Amino acid sequence: MQSGLYVHIPFCRSKCPYCAFYSIASQSLIPRWVEALKSECRLVSGSLKDRFQSFNTIHFGGGTPSILDPGILERIMKCLLAHFSFSGLCEVAMEANPLDLTAERVSAIRSLGFTRVVVGAQSFSEKSLAFLGRKHSGRDVRNAMEVLRREGFQNTGIDLIYGIQGQTIEEWTADLEKAVAFSPAHISCYCLSLEDGTRFGRMAHKGDLATLSSEKEREFFLAASDFLGRRGYIHYEVSNFARGRQFESRHNLKYWRREPYLGLGPSAHSFDGTARWWNIRSIKGYCEALEKGSLPVDDREDLTAEQTALEKVAMGLRIREGFSLDEETRHWIRTDRIEAMEKEGLIVREGMNVAPTMNGFLVADRLPLELVV
Amino acid sequence: MSQIRNFCIIAHIDHGKSTLADRFIQKAGLVDERNFRNQILDSMDIERERGITIKSQAVTLPYRNSRGEDFELNLIDTPGHVDFSYEVSRALASCEGALLLVDATQGVEAQTLANLYAAMEHDLTVIPVINKIDLASADVERTREQIEIDLGLDSSSALLCSAKEGTGVTDVMDAITERIPAPSGSQEGSLQALIFDAHYDNFRGTIVTCRIFTGRVKAGDIIQLMSNGATYRVEEVGVFRLKREARASLSAGEVGYIIAGIKTVRDTRIGDTVTLANTPAASPLPGFREVKPVVFSSIYPVSSDDYRSLADAMEKYQLNDAALTFQKDSSAALGLGFRCGFLGLLHLEIFQERLEREFDQSIIMTVPTVMYRIVLNNGETVNVDNPLYYPDPVNIKESLEPYIRTRILIPERYMGAVMELCLSRRGVNSRFSYPSPGRIEIQFEMPLSEVIYDFYDRLKSITQGYGSFDYDMLDYRASELVKLDILVNGERVDALSQIVHKDRARERALHVCEKLKDEIPRHLFKIPIQGALGGNIIARSTISPFRKDVTAKCYGGDITRKRKLLEKQKKGKKKMKIIGSVSIPQSAFVAIFKADEKEK
Ligand SMILES: Nc1nc2c(ncn2[C@@H]2O[C@H](COP(=O)(O)OP(=O)(O)O)[C@@H](O)[C@H]2O)c(=O)[nH]1
Q1: pTM over 0.80
Q2: Facing residues of B483 across strands?
Q3: CATH topology of domain A3-256
Q4: Which of A 297-326 lie inside 8 A of B, CB atoms?
């Protein structure tokens, strides 16, 4: 099976108060980190050769990958190509901040072989952007999308966040309107969650911040699905929409389908089909390990059959295609509940395949609790 | 015998009873360091936390007074809650005197008064002791005044002390030797020993604590319990120091223990008289009463697989709790369990806590109920203490429920609020008396079922802790009872049924519906909760389904985090009882018999 290759770029201009991904707001460690990353490629390609045969997606996530100079991006890319084997490479993606996407930079990114750029727009409303701590404006997103189009990128994405305290359904649909006006190939609509370890999380703990009611979140969720559906976007994952199946995120689908992926960089997670492991969540710790010549792995776990089934169901119920009730999975599943859920309109079953409905998407975190013994 | 003094300490919570007892034990030279509180009086955790003493115990203190005379002082500890008022009365019956301990910074409080009356009923010599005089906020004069006026005692006889610092403690001990009369009773007559406590020891079986009134008992004697005629051969007698200390014999006036191969504490009765089988006393000591459980509730293991383990725990538990009764029970909703009888709600709570804490059992407890008497059309009378066995209403000719007489002692200013509370609990035939200026004693006759939930808590809260409460069983009176059923998602949950008075049914039903709504988590579907009398729905609430429950993203391939969260949730779900397709947490069963916060 083809694997995905993920590179975590743990640098940002500033920390956004909602984001729980690992990154730091200083760039002084970039040179040291690049060296460490190269060592990691070398070490990993040696030790893990057998686990990952070949890769067909590359994803630069973060952090803010677009923060890196094209020169550095090139060194990283070359290193990846030198150490790993690729076949049928179909997606090379990068997450980007609209402020980074100047014509010059986009042109460089394109010539490095990137095929997909996802723009972290989050919103087009000045009020929401200010609340989310974003330094760009709606106009910056417009410019970025314009540049991407001019430089020939077909596969563009826009990320949006909804569910901000006080946000109205009208404000949310206005964001969606603005996003589809660029006809991006892909749109992600993330419901704001107040995560531990973020500034919003701390505010929520103190009671200074709350999410919308689940009733309102449901309304926003359905509005997005309906709005984008009418405009030809397929709601292929809980938070993700693609203007045609070819534009679904091939890399992210691997997470949900439980296909293998290798993660490089601090805090990156890997999965080889049976075991999961993850890197140290600190640039320093990551660099120090590699400078000593050891793998920067923080911990690992081997999955039991039960855990595998739970993951399979939990992930499968996040995607429109669903999951297959193979024999191993069936062993851990309450088949009586499948029937009941089908009656309740939460899932549909076709042969051995079980897939969520729109109502199923809405409670996708509950379903595995009911389904898996 | 002239050198023996038997006494107890009457005090409101926190006035310093334990501290003073510690001082006595130190002065007696039983220990030198201070770390003995946990070993002596108040040995159970739960007691400590609640600031009450549940089980009577005794300690024998050797003491040479300031005149150089040697004494043995027996300090008898008394429980301080109405559930155990019978046990208290037996402990008091074993004393000749009592210290009435008052915190000089707080003054006389309600509980002191109630306990003082009990002591006076037993003709005890009362020595007022004003404690905590070391504190700047101590108001000795005001406290004296209260002792004189509120308690009607001679305040010039009051002693001053600081239990904490030890000041005046010797004076208190001297006063015990000088003012409290020596026990009377002949060593020659037939043995009469009053059992006022019994506890279980893993090695020795039941250890009976008793006060000898007449005669003498020694190892080798064949004793007989007068209530049931059972005989045992005495293995050992002795007194309690920090540990048990064997003696050749115990004789009239003394307080100590008897070990006689008695298997469980259930084979003994508090208040029973021990005599010798060969030369039995002509009559038992007065005041014996068979304590009967008055509150009943069923317990079930949270996980039905744990029934055996619960059964084992119950067997061990009962070794040390003579008042607990239980028998097998089974519910359609909760499976196999036990129907238990308790002396009162505190007894029930202690049981529940100990079972969970000490015996590591996870249990679900059903709504406590009293024992109803139902007369059927065919003339037969049945006792019903379990809603599961409530007869079909068409067969019922008449229902009766137990009534009690409550005695409530409060400062006058709370009279209105307390009256209101009692009337709302179907209290009738009120009577009032004024034991001392500013204080009022209110008596009501009311159904026992009205006080078993939360009456005492509410009384305490509306009187800011100044209300004390006591009750006696009166009789059974005709009542209009109904069986309230609770339906969750259309299914009747037998373990949630209650027997209630017709006029209270709607209120109870609403209460249960609201509580369950708060306690049962959302499900994927809507869950109606209904209260029903027969086929008649009288209250309802609805738990709306999850509207949205899905995380926006799985963090860049960090599936582990997501799965761990699911695993945790699944574990939580396993702890719930699944009834029909609804998962009901253990807390829901408890919550329905807790008062509303707002009601308090
Ligand atoms: N200052 C002072 N504190 C005391 C005295 N006697 C008891 N205390 C404190 O009062 C609190 C309650 O005492 P305790 O003996 O536990 O009260 P009990 O509930 O009556 O057994 C404890 O914190 C004691 O240390 C005293 O004479 N002086």
Answers
A1: no
A2: B499
A3: pyruvate-formate lyase- activating enzyme (3.80.30)
A4: 301, 307, 310-311, 314-315, 318
pLDDT level of residue A55 (50, 70, 90 thresholds): very high
Contact between B83 and B62 under an 8 Å Cβ cutoff? The reply is no
Neighbours of A126 (CB within 10 A): 11
From chain A, pick out residues whose CB is under 8 angstroms from the CB of B572.
none
Give the ranges where B122-204 is alpha helix by DSSP (H). Answer: 140-149, 169-179
Cβ contact B524–A217 (<8 Å): no
Domain boundaries, chain A: 3-256, 305-371
Burial A49-65 (b: 16+ CB within 10 A, else e): eebbeebbbbbbbbbbb
CB B174 within 8 A of CB B65: yes
Is the Cβ pair B548, A192 closer than 8 Å? Answer: no
Helix, strand, coil share of chain A (percent; to 5): 45, 25, 35
DSSP A140: H
Please report the ipTM that was assigned to this predicted complex.
Answer: 0.94
B212, B253 Cβ separation under 8 angstroms: yes
Write down all domains in chain B, each with its CATH number in brackets. 4-179 (3.40.50.300), 192-276 (2.40.30.10), 295-365 (3.30.70.870), 372-479 (3.30.70.240), 482-591 (3.30.70.2570)
Would you say domain A305-371 falls under CATH 1.10.10? Answer: yes
Report the atom number in ligand 1 closest to the C-alpha of B165.
27
Which residue type occupies B188? E
Peptide bond into A63 cis (omega under 30): yes
- Pocket, ligand 1, Cβ cutoff 6 A: B 11, 13-19, 51, 131-132, 134-135, 162-164
Question: What's B553-571 look like in SS3?
Answer: CCHHHCHHHHHHHHHHHHH
- Taking only the tens place, the pLDDT of each residue in B241-285 is 877 899 999 999 999 999 999 988 888 988 999 999 999 999 999
Search chain B and give the residue with CA nearest A61: B556
Tell me how close the Cα of A21 comes to any Cα of chain B, in angstroms: 7
d(CA B292, CA B283): 23
